[in-house]
Amino acid sequence: QKEVEQDPGPLSVPEGAIVSLNCTYSNSAFQYFMWYRQYSRKGPELLMYTYSSGNKEDGRFTAQVDKSSKYISLFIRDSQPSDSATYLCAMGRRGFKTIFGAGTRLFVKA
Amino acid sequence: DGGITQSPKYLFRKEGQNVTLSCEQNLNHDAMYWYRQDPGQGLRLIYYSQIVNDFQKGDIAEGYSVSREKKESFPLTVTSAQKNPTAFYLCASSRGTSGDSTTRNEQFFGPGTRLTVL
What we know:
A: 5-stranded antiparallel sheet, B: 4-stranded antiparallel sheet, elongated
């Protein structure tokens, strides 16, 4: 079993839809959780960083962490064609390497 | 502007040739990392370095070598021993192990180098 599981998609939605991206993990010791966005042939860019459980909102993006269920989510409201990219979840704890999900490909159709 | 640069953007390697990928950061980060990304496989850690003059193997270090002579630089050499080097290579950096457990330690990535073997 992988430490982090992420559905590769692709996920295709119409413009304006609410997008839900998810990851599950097995290591209850993980303390920090991140979401990266990666456009084709580009390096990943950090979207959201969350320490421990809870929600964090930044513009159209909301990150949720449920440590009791070992489940994290990224919600994108009012999705735009420019949101079409691969979204990577990542998580870890101090002193240990960060573990990345395989990424979910998202297509937002105009 | 602070950030991470990688060069070249595209690189072609002939059979039996060693090639070196450059990674430079001006974020004053202690830790640097090299990842390989293949379609459908996510990021796989090749090597990482927490401080100057020290580095550790990641999950797929065979056929690769690195050096960390300066804080800002972490070049990766893909040797002829790497049998399937065609991939997208990403360099990243982070603050490292300084601070307490709540100190943010996210990794920042460079734009990547696409290596193709001819």
